[in-house]
Amino acid sequence: MMGQFVFRNLFHRPVRTLIGVVAIAFEVMLVIVIVGLTSGMLQETAKRIEGIGADVMVQSPGAQMFMVMGSAPMPIKIGEKIRELRYVQYVSPALLQFNTSGGVETIWGIDQVSFRDVSNGFVFYEGRDLQDPDDMLVDDWQARAKHVKLGDTYSLLNHSWKVVGIVEHGKAGRIFVPITSLQELVGGRDKATIFLVRCTRPEHTPDVIAEIKDLLPNYPVRPVKEFMTLMTSTNIPALHTFINSMIALAVSIGLLVIFLSMYTTVLERTRDIGVLKSLGASKFLIIRALLAEATLLSLLGILAGVCLSYVVRAGSQKLFPTLSILITPEWIIRAALIAIIGALVGASYPAWQASRKDAVEALSYD
Amino acid sequence: MAITVTIRTNSTGITEPEFKTLEPILKIENVWKLYHAGKVEVPALRGVNFEVLPGESVAVMGPSGCGKSSLLYVIGGLAKASRGKVLVDGNDLVAMNDAERTKLRRHKIGFVFQRFNLLPALSAKGNIAIAQYIHGDGFDPHRFDVVTKMLGLDGRLEHRPSEMSGGEQQRVAIARAIINEPKILLADEPTGNLDTKNSEIVLEMLRRLNKDLGQTIVMITHNPEATTYFDRVVHMRDGVIVDGVPAD
């Protein structure tokens, strides 16, 4: 009976219910998509780093693991010293430049010869490798997203590049230019952001890491194979804070909407509450009924929010093919719990108020 | 206290009277109800004394503002008397806290209001069943059928209040009030929002409840004709009962 009562009450005011459901759906969608977007970007970046085929990656002191956000260059000569270490087969420097004009992208300045050695080269769908200073390679996803064709001119960093090759995605970045050209453009002559190291045999990786750490004590040295597990938002403090802030914002919206919805519900149902009291309903029963209603509202919102998240992901993949949104069951459950707890917190004050209403006043309420 | 006399035939075939004392189901002693308007105390009831026997039907009449509704709310435990004693089936409501009064109301009191006060989201069936749910014994289909048939609601049970006439709504409200077999049925102007025909139907149903099932009823009314359906009429004025006379 209580279920029926709650259900009927919820659908007695369909517009208000719809607004509540939509608000919670947005809350859930925001949590899932924001987390999915950051996780997707991290995972996608990690996959591409792993996809290079290097065994070890060296960054400058203070560099972020999530490299796309900062260049923090090192002298390129460090690469020569690393090359001299035992079990090191190849070393390739790369200069990474984050660009936000006309989209968000990381430009990889590479030394095409050493990069080929470390990575076994690109798989070319069209065109050829970098040869001239203005040459540019793009991967197939970037080409599709930006509608770029072989031979097109691509403007980046106030410079016109010529697209000379379209390569298979999944290796390092999406845009590659000669490292020397990028160094000139960004004022980083003889600088590199990372060094990609290939060992003579993969099992020598720990030895090579140890030797590099001896040589460059303050430099982060990481095995590339572990990059995927390290690339989580919790390992990137600023990103973690950003995600938490976004979640807090989403929860606040949901909480306020539920509060407002249940508050107006209680006001509107003042007389009904008086009737329930006249029938002998306890305070606990009235609180339970309203909290159950908020829970049901949030469950509908969660369902809609999860569906909406998949719709947003599908839309995003169509509009921005290079953006990856990773929707995981873990975060769906977390978002659902956040929404339910938010709904219960938002509804608890109106429910408590309802339970304390004076029965006689409530019965004479118009 | 009242004395009832029953004529019985004993084992030897001789008829003899049997005397039995009858305790009032409702007893009000010197009840005051004060409302506060700012710092001013406004008395709604000023030392009311009143008794109702089990199975009795009593109509309370009086001008607007004389304290009739306050009396009903105090009897039903919706409002607490400021002073005095309100004994419902031997339980003093004045000595009880809110939760205890709620519990007593759930088990011993049924309310019928002038404005029907049905829950708009629920069907007629839902409105009646929720009283059973709150009572705590769950849905009793047998009792439900008996009550709804008696009140002529069989064909209207799936309708919502907005789809029913005033008379039908009030019959649903009566069904809701009596579904848990309360000791006392309290009716606050139950015909106040009804036309003459529906008023008569509702009053006749209340009379049948009283006569056929022995339901104790206390009803507030403005309508002198309505009092003819009741055993006794009491008049109130300025927060006190001024007389109590048997109805014609």
Can you put this structure into words, describing what you see?
The complex is a heterodimer of chains A (366) and B (248). Chain A is of the alpha+beta class and 366 residues long. In chain A, 56% of the residues lie in helices and 17% in strands. In chain A, strands 1, 3, 4, 5, 6, 7, 8, 9, 11 and 12 form a ten-stranded mixed sheet that branches. Chain A has a two-stranded antiparallel sheet with strand order 2-10. The two termini of chain A are 27 Å apart. The model of chain A has no long low-confidence stretch (mean pLDDT 88). Chain B contains six helices and twelve strands. Chain B has helices at 68-75, 98-108, 124-135, 141-150, 166-178, 196-213; strands at residues 2-9, 15-22, 26-37, 40-52, 57-61, 83-88, 91-92, 109-112, 184-188, 216-221, 232-237, 240-246. The radius of gyration of chain B is 19 Å and the shape is globular. Chain B has a six-stranded mixed sheet. A four-stranded antiparallel sheet of chain B has the order 4-3-6-7, covered by helices on one side. Chain B has one domain (2-6, 17-246): P-loop containing nucleotide triphosphate hydrolases (Rossmann fold, 3-Layer(aba) Sandwich), CATH 3.40.50. Chain B is 29% helix and 33% strand. In chain B, helix 3 packs parallel to helix 5 (166-178) and helix 5 runs parallel beside helix 6 (196-213). At the A-B interface, helix 1, helix 10 and helix 13 of A face helix 2 and helix 3 of B.
